[in-house]
Structure formats: C-alpha cells, structure tokens
Amino acid sequence: MGQNKIIIIGHKQPDTDSICSVIGYAELRNRAEPGKYIPARCGEVSPEARFALETFGAEAPVYVASVEPTVSDIPLDTRRVRQDVPTVDVAALMDTYDMRNMPITDGDETLVGLVSEYGLARAYVRKNPREQLSLIPMPLETLARILDARIVVLSRETLGEGRVYTVIDALHVTLSRMTPDDIAIVGDNEPAQLALISAGVAALIIAEGAPVGERVIDAARTRGASVLATTLDAFSVGKMISLSLPASMIMETDIPTVRMEDSLEYAKSIVSNSKFRTACVVGEEGRHIGLVSRTTLMQDVQKSVILLDHNEYSQAVDGIEQADILEIIDHHRLGAISTLKPVRFLNDPVGSTSTIVANKFIEACIEPTPSTAGLLLSGILSDTMVMKLSTTTPADIRAADHLAGIAGVDPAEYGPELIRKGMDLDALPKDELLTRDMKRYNLFGRSIMVSQVMTSSFEFAETRADEIRAELDHLRTTMGVDCFFALFTNVFGNASDLFAAGDEACISKLDLRDQPVRLEGVMSRKKDFIPKFGQMFRQL
C-alpha cells in the first residue's frame, strides 16, 4: 500500500454503509491531497453492497486484513550486486555504503546469496595457505583494474581458468608445472620474464613497479601472452587476485528472507535469530526487493488510519491497537477505543455514516462524482431501510435528496431494489447468514454478539426456527461469547423476530425461553435493541 498513505476503513463484516462511506470520504479527502487516502475494508462485500458498486460502476475498497505494521511500511536498502561481480568490488561497495551484508542476485534479479563481512574475511584470509591460487575466466581489463595495473601488451581480451604462480626463485620448477592458461607474477627479472613468456604463459604480471623492457614486450606479442605492470608487490597481487573471484564463489546461501506483507514483529524475530543480523526482502519468484536490518527495524512505525462507521475495538480491523488513529466518523453509540493523542472524532446520531460524509461534501462546497453520490445514497438507503427505520432523521432525508439529484437516481425506486438484493436468504448457509452482519458489544461485563438479518416477511424465521437456534448455539460456543442474539428484521412489517443463545439463567431472566420473540417496532440494532437489552443486562 505504500508509505505515507492513510487508510480509511470501516468495521468487520462491512455493510453497505461501511463500504460506501469509506469510498465517499476517500474521494473527498483526495480532492485536496490526491492519492493519499485509500478506501479499505476488512471483510467481504455483501450482495447488497456489491449491487450498489455494480450499479454505479465503482471498485470495491481494497481488502486490508490487518493494520499491524509490515515490512512494506519501512524504508528498505535496495542495493544489491550481481553474482558475477568480483569480490573486491563487492567489498568496495560495502565499505562505501557502510554495509555489513550485500545481497547477491542473478541476471533476473532473483536473490541467490549474501556476502557478509565474515565471508569477505574468510576469502581474504584463506583457510589453507597451501591451496593453489587460481583465477576464473575474466576480462583482462577487469584484472588490470583490480590490480591497479596498466596493460602493456593485450594479447588476450579474456583470461581463462588457470592457476597463478608467484615466481621468486626455482624458476625451472614453475616452468615445469605451467600450462597455457596459467598466469605468472614476477618481479624485476627480465630473464625470468622471457622464460615464462617462452613457456607459453597466458599472462605475465610484473610487480613492484619493475620496468618492462622492449624484448619482453616483443616476445609477449610474438607468443600471444598478455603483460600487465603494477606497483603492487607480489604478495599483494596474489591477495588481490584471490579477491577477484566472483561474488557467487564466496557468498552464503542460507540467508533469512521475509516478504513485504510480513509483520514487523515477525521480521524482527527473523533478524534477531540470524547470524547475519539482517534479512532479505523477496517478492514473487524470489525477486530481491531490499534489505532489512536491526537498525531499520528499530524505527517506530505505525499505519495511519481513519475509522468510519464504528468506534469499538471489537469491530475494528485487526492490528488497530498498533495503528495511528487520525480520525473517527461514526453514528453509533460510544465505544471503548482510546488513543494516545487527540484525534478528530465526529459522532452524529443520524441514520448512516454516508449521511455524515455527504454533509462534509456539502460543507466543503464540493460535489461528489455521480458514482460516489450514488454510493453514498446507497449507504443511506441501506442503513435506514429506505427511510423506514426509527433511526432516520431529517438530515438523512435531505442528504439522500441531494445525492439522488447528482446521481440521477429515484430513491423510491432504487431503494427497495437495493434492499431486496441483500435478502436472498436461502442462498446462504446458516452460519454465513448469521455472521455476515454481526457486531460484538461488551455490556456490563458480558460479551455480546448481535447479528441482524433483513427480511421482507416473518416467514423465513418462523419456518427455520429450529435450524437458527441450533446454529446460534454453535456460533456462541465457537466465538466464545456469553450471549449471541440474532434479529430477523421485517423491513415492511416494522418488527423483528429475536433468537438468542446463552446460559440457561441468562435466557430465563431475559424471558427468551420461547423463540423467536416478536419485538414490535424494533428495526434498529443500535437504537432499538441495544438500548433496551443493555438496560436488562445491567440488572442481571
């Protein structure tokens, strides 16, 4: 999602108002700061909300499972080198950028290894001093650059795989062992230089700033040997050649990796348990993205979030406790969310959050796009049951009329069609039906779950009462709540049928033994049901 973005998100099991209001508020805020505000959701889109999105040609808010900080929220060191780069160049880069580890990739940028300070030290201080120094195929110019040497004779542009000999004395022994692919390091000894060229050496490295005579140059050209001259001594030339090996030959492959979507807590555990004290961030097919270290993970990182249509931890997206809440816009009862610093908090007792967002457009003298106006209208019509619920206020009616004019929609025709799209009850399994619009409350020390199912008659609840009660008992147990209530609200009958699951004493004291219980005039979970039953729970 990127850094410096602000997530606007509704509650879990988002209803149409939650989906539409975040889209509307993101559009309003992005008018001033384009692209900064991201409309999001932390649940599936309901059939009703999907119908609204399709009707007005809008995309669903992006799905965000958690706002816990992830690797994507921190800056990454994106430096890396290819596996064919000489080790000495890797070391130089690490020194320049003060890096303890350097990721190594192949030609497709796939992570293949890591060069560490320890690996470099091990390459320089060889484990076996008797081991024959050798050279892998490389351009002569690369070797000259590594040795800070000038090319006196260029006979071969690329050197092959061969051994490296330092010729100090016992020249005849060296000559007896050499092959046409080998390289010789020699000092200020012209007879030895000529003898080595005559033996068919691939390249001659003249060390210690020794002069290169014309006879040596002519012989090298005749025999096809390359000649390099450097001011380094023979020992230094040998060590530099050992560091000319490609990164792939000294890198380690047992490297810890994380992904952009991994939480920072997980990344910290990986880094702290790694011998490298770092981890590589990879994407699809192992593509290298960046490097995280203990230093980068020490930063205090929080996702910036604006909450809409709720103000309770139990209904909020996972990880909200670790987020930076900037603003809350809601129309429900006050919940238990607390913040460490002051935030904007608008709680207006209107029928929907979409009404509040619509009024913010009006106050800012900004007109929403027709698509967004249609979505906000959908949120209002859904949450007020086309202005039938007791929560409907004059502000909802005014906002709906205003939005309908922009969207070119007749609320009296569109509203009932929208509601019917959310009432295809037979198509859903009972567990999904009872959990797609549920909210958790904590009332006087008891954990309460209240589900609401909108219907066009009482028939569905009456004919499936046994199945509903059985499923409620199961859900109450699996979710670990004290009581689980389900309201089957008849939109056109101005009443709800109530089912409940809880301990025997609680059900008895609430007078809910015979279910369903018809609750006349109860249409709103927040305004009609919770206030009434909240008082009853106070007395339990």
TrEMBL record:
| Matches recorded under PANTHER family | BNIP - RELATED, MANGANESE-DEPENDENT INORGANIC PYROPHOSPHATASE-RELATED
| GO molecular function, a single term | metal ion binding
Give a GO cellular-component term. Answer: cytoplasm
Species source reads Methanoculleus sediminis
Q: Show the stretches that span the lipid bilayer.
A: none
The answer, when asked if Manganese is one of the entry's keywords, is yes
Protein name listed in UniProt: inorganic diphosphatase
Per its record, the protein catalyses:
diphosphate + H2O = 2 phosphate + H(+)
| EC annotation from Swiss-Prot or TrEMBL | 3.6.1.1
Q: Which cofactor does it need?
A: Mn(2+)
InterPro entries from the UniProt entry: CBS_dom, CBS_dom_sf, DDH_dom, DHH_sf, DHHA2, DHHA2_dom_sf, DRTGG, Ser_kin/Pase_Hpr-like_N_sf
Keyword terms, alphabetized: Amino-acid biosynthesis, CBS domain, Hydrolase, Manganese, Metal-binding, Methionine biosynthesis
One of the GO biological process terms? methionine biosynthetic process
Which residue range or ranges hold the CBS domain?
73-130, 251-308
Note the Pfam families from the entry: CBS, DHH, DHHA2, DRTGG
